[in-house]
Amino acid sequence: MAAAADLIGTRGTDDLSMTELARAAGLSKPALYRYFPNKQAIYRQLALDMFAENQAMVAKGLAREDADRARVLREAIRGYCAMQHARPYRTHLRAAISANPELADLDIADSRTNAATVSRSLADTDVGPQDRDDTLFLMMSLVDTLAHVTRRVPQDEAGRLMDRFGTVFAEALGLPRGAQGD
Cα separation of 24 and 42, whole Å? Predict the structure, then answer.
């Protein structure tokens, strides 16, 4: 999987070949095919690994003991974008996920799982459960677009956009303004 992530990060998903991947992984081509029958199976496993990492990141963020939950949310968004930027394969993999109905459904399920996890931790806000769930689902679904945009704009603008994204969603979730600095 590390070899696939490296190759995808530098070349994208369109140029990935099973022969090249086998070579990069130190495997024979038949050995690679015993584990993964095709590129789609590799993309699926990478996506599942990425979703597990996303879920762990959400859980870690929720474990923080910080009264300023709006700040925690903004920091989590910045952390997610930083992770996306540091691992180029994730951006290329997102394109493959969008193009494949099965992977797109898994992506939606991941966003719903993360939204539900965060929603349970915000049950004490004044926002109703349905509005809270919908807002969090939208946020989880849109954060990848934010990560994509912030890779392509100047760093100062990227920081402002990430903070604004977090502020908009913190307000929609009924989180106290705290020390938002806006």
Answer: 14
Query: 182 falls in which pLDDT band (50, 70, 90)?
Result: very low
Strand, coil or helix: 102: helix
- What is the SS3 assignment for 37? coil
Distance CA 150, CA 51 (A): 21
**pTM to 2 decimals?**
0.87
Measured distance CA(38)–CA(74) in Å, rounded: 38
- Say which amino acid occupies 174: G
Question: Residue type for 153, please?
Answer: V
Torsion on CA atoms 84, 181, 55, 117, rounded to nearest 10: -150
**Residue 180 binned pLDDT confidence (cut-offs 50, 70, 90):** very low
Q: Which run of H or E residues covers position 114? A: helix 101-121
Residue 179 has pLDDT above 80, yes or no: no
Give the list of residues 6+ apart from residue 175 with CB closer than 8 angstroms, or none.
69, 70, 73, 122, 125
